[in-house]
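Project standup — Tuesday

K.O.: blocked on the structure for the chain from last sprint. Re-posting the sequence here as requested.
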Amino acid sequence: MDADPLAGEPVFVYGTLKRGHRNHHWLAGASFLGERQLGGAQLFDLGPFPMAVAGAGASATPAASAAAAGEATAGEAGNTTTWIHGELYRVSAEGLDQLDLLEGCPRLYGRHWLQLLDGSHAWVYLGRPRQVRHARLLADGLWRLH
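H.V.: unblocked you, prediction finished:
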């Protein structure tokens, strides 16, 4: 049974923690709050997992970002930003601590309190631009199963 949807912390996930992906079991007991989008960031393919990084400037529409960025790497993508598509969950404090361990926070990812496109706020795990400088940009902002 899901936890009380009003208890805990909101967390936006965009990669292997999403439903149907290999790390979703880490969200056992969390409340699924629906699909959401994060603006002003870019999503990169690091092979076994994605990494989002904060983009420069305001977010563009997904179609405009895809047309502008194509299959660019981080170095070629410049300041193109997109909407990152993901899922919102409410997790317990203990669950958030466990996610920090999974995400290697604060060394691999940093956890940031960000506003989503619907106006809600959530914790989001972001990497640093230097970590994705040779990675492929996912211009549509969507991580898919490999």
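K.O.: great, moving the ticket to review. The first strand starts at residue 9 and ends at 13. Residues 57-77 have pLDDT under 50 and may be disordered.
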